[in-house]
Amino acid sequence: MIATGGNRATSMPSPAGSGGSSVTAGPSEASTGVGTELPNIGEIFRDQLEHRRPSVARPSSAPRVMRLSSLEEAERLAGQYFDSMGYQYPFLSRPEFMANLRHIYTGGVPSPETHHSYHIVIAISLLIGSADPIQAAEFYHASQETLPLALQNEDLPAVRALLGLSLYTMFATAGPSIWHLLGATMRLSISMGLHKTRSYSSIAEEEMAKRAFWSLYNLDRLIASTLGRPLGIADDDISVGLLRELNDDETEAPGASAMTIPLQVTRLRRIFSRIYQYLYSSLPRLCPQEAAATLSRFRHEVDDWRITAPVYPSALLYSTSYYDYLYYTTLLLMYRPSPRNPTPDITSIISCGESSIQVIRSYWDSYSVGKLKWIWLTLSQVYFAGITILWCLEQNARSLRDSQPAPWHPEEQTMRRGIQAVVVLLEEFGKRRPGVDRLAETFRHQSTVIFSQMAYQQQQLEQQQHHHHPQHQHHYQPQPQPPPPPFALLPAHPMSLAAPPPPPVPLAPVLDDVLLVDGSGTVPMIDPQMAEQLFYSYNWFQEEMASYYTL
């Protein structure tokens, strides 16, 4: 489906330039793109695995430091990192980082840990800000000069260094496998006991350890579920408490702290984790009654989470739209076909169809304002949501063929625009990543066939209604509806804070009431084998994507 190629290189990078200021990469470096010489996990850990030693003091001096044009520019990029990644993965202290930044830009010599942290944060910020990828790669290469020192001990700086590297490789087009990185980081954190309740010398030390562990936990749940792989640690093995909502001065501020958003994200990820372990395991299939009862309980938990999640005015987007996105991706995971619930009931069909549309809308909103991240995680979520809509429409077609009422009744234009948004986004991915264009073309073709089936069945239904008297029509029992989303209970946001609505998704003619019926007048059908692969198993896409991106 996706063309092969573009694999991540596995050789150790050579530092780009020297000295204290930004260096322009040579032609050979510039042509390789972002991170094409990032090391694999074996090279990162080879020395540590073969030559383990007790904890020793790190050197007090560090290699060269790359500086931006001014302290103000560095503070802007660092702020950009903490205002995005910092709300999702708060393993670094913002006040401490900013103090170290000022120390560096006033001529100070950073410690190896500070040296590595500074360069990797600036590299990540340059990537997520869609800046010049060559400059991001230069800062990354500079961070590698002190990575061995950051990893020499089994301690919190080593965990933070690996988390920073994981975030960088998640956004870079090439680099070490994030799956392997997170696995190594999880083993390190477990050996340190970060997953357990334990004593610390201060509140600050305890909270920074908890922030590192829960950042790792959230990344692990995201990556494992996206790739369809086992989790790095079972929830039953975790006893450490959740984050405390502390301000920078260590005063507690429930609902009004920079830790409020990370805390809410972690609470949902814990529900998400239980859903994933329950539905996506090798245990026997669930009976319909047990599946319905358990999903109902999970739905109640997820709805309660969304209703009670507080709005944090200092990060309005993250505490509103981002919460909505997490809410709908969790519902999508819960209701779509899964190994233990491969044939979801009507409530699930309706719920995963509506959730898929909302997930796509979230990505389209980001695309409309030029803020979509063109990374494999985005590709996965967009494709999963799109193919789930097609699955729901296929369930409608199956029901109608069996003379049963269609289970899902989406608003027509909203559903069609959602499908077309997926086509547009996949095509845009194809322009940036060779091979994805084939995935876009396949999705477009399957969408066209589905819409053709819908048009044909509508035509047949109208003909039947024309030839039969109304009293001979079938009377169907009303179908159960899914629980309504909880947003009606949320406080309305001031209009002055609301973002302008994004432009509507254009409807492509190929998806707009196209009737592809051959001369015999038979209904267009999807190849059964293709339908089974597309609609009842996500594994083929997860495995192919992991191979393509060397995850």
Automatic annotation (TrEMBL):
Transmembrane segments: none annotated. Residues 1-39, 460-495 are annotated as: Disordered. Residues 479-488 have a biased composition (Pro residues). GO terms for cellular component: nucleus. Residues 466-475 have a biased composition (Basic residues). It is found in: Nucleus. It comes from the Eukaryota. GO terms for molecular function: DNA-binding transcription factor activity, RNA polymerase II-specific; sequence-specific DNA binding; zinc ion binding. Keywords: DNA-binding, Metal-binding, Nucleus, Transcription, Transcription regulation, Zinc. PANTHER family: ZN(2)-C6 FUNGAL-TYPE DOMAIN-CONTAINING PROTEIN-RELATED (PTHR47782:SF15), ZN(II)2CYS6 TRANSCRIPTION FACTOR (EUROFUNG)-RELATED (PTHR47782). This is Transcription factor, fungi. It comes from Penicillium roqueforti (strain FM164).
